[in-house]
# Entry
Amino acid sequence: MKKVWYTGALVLLLTIAGAALSGASARAATPVGKWGRLSVSGSNIVSRTGKKVQLKGVSTHGIAWFPQYVNKSAFKSLRKMGVNTIRLAFYSDPSAGYSKSLYSKVEEGVRAATSLGMYVIIDWHILSDGNPKIHQKQAMQFFTHFAKKYGGQKNILYEICNEPNGDVTWQEDVRPYAVKVIRRIRKYDKKNIIIVGTPTWSQDVDIAAQKPLKEKNIVYALHFYAATHTDYIRQKLITARKAGLPVLVSEFNICDASGNGQIDKKSGTKWMKLLRKYKIGHVAWSLCNKAETASLIKASCRKTGGFTKKNLTETGRFISKWW
Ligand code: IDC
# Structure
């Protein structure tokens, strides 16, 4: 009788211990569980223990146009394919859907990514409004809101100006804007990484490297569309890295810069090998089924989550090999 009782208790104990362990290991198995809060050390993004981390991400399309892809099932299926980061693209121009009412969509996206242990980039997506100073006031409101709300979380990154372009310079426009926005974010969030865009649609990392910001945990955005941006932009990356600049490819695709031209796998492969060599993270544009070559999901696919590789476009399949 006594023996039976002992065996029962032992089984129970083992079951409880097993469940606790599997909970812990499930958490550790997520990207954030594994690496914790990221920071910048030299020219690298590193984990809480100082290990180099290569972010592998997917960006939403503008969340005003494709809000339906901002959901946990979509993100979870990407995580299964090897994606560790989600970028939420919040366009800053009213003609591209800017509206404060979309803050809640960003929050939905952050909640979903957080529950999956994924990193999430909150992206202030300037584009037709090429100078970040144009909507600086709205940018300050935006980052105040989100830094206050998420400053204590480990999985947040802020991208403060997607792609400065037109008549803007690093010295006169982007850098001074960055100094102000970073100061505001740091009021509420002391540590999480801030991504700063560079002039010419975030290509001029070589120019930013001549006068980088003084603040900590900053990385500089390099964006490329492989069919348009070839060796001469790769050279800019190499120059910036040689100068010690931390770079993140927070947006890219293997099609041309219009988002809807030819795809160039040869140039794409050169880019991905270069990024792997430097362990530079990359975030693919974009998670939707719009009929354009930049889309990761086939136009014929009506699902908004639970994706498998079969649902990916040719572009998506190529990129997913690097996840
Ligand atoms: C494109 C979208 C396209 C949309 C257009 C205008 O793919 O569907 O109509 O924006 O908003 C970028 C931008 C990114 C662009 C993308 C392709 O960051 O917003 O998306 N691109 O043109 N930089 C270089 C290319």
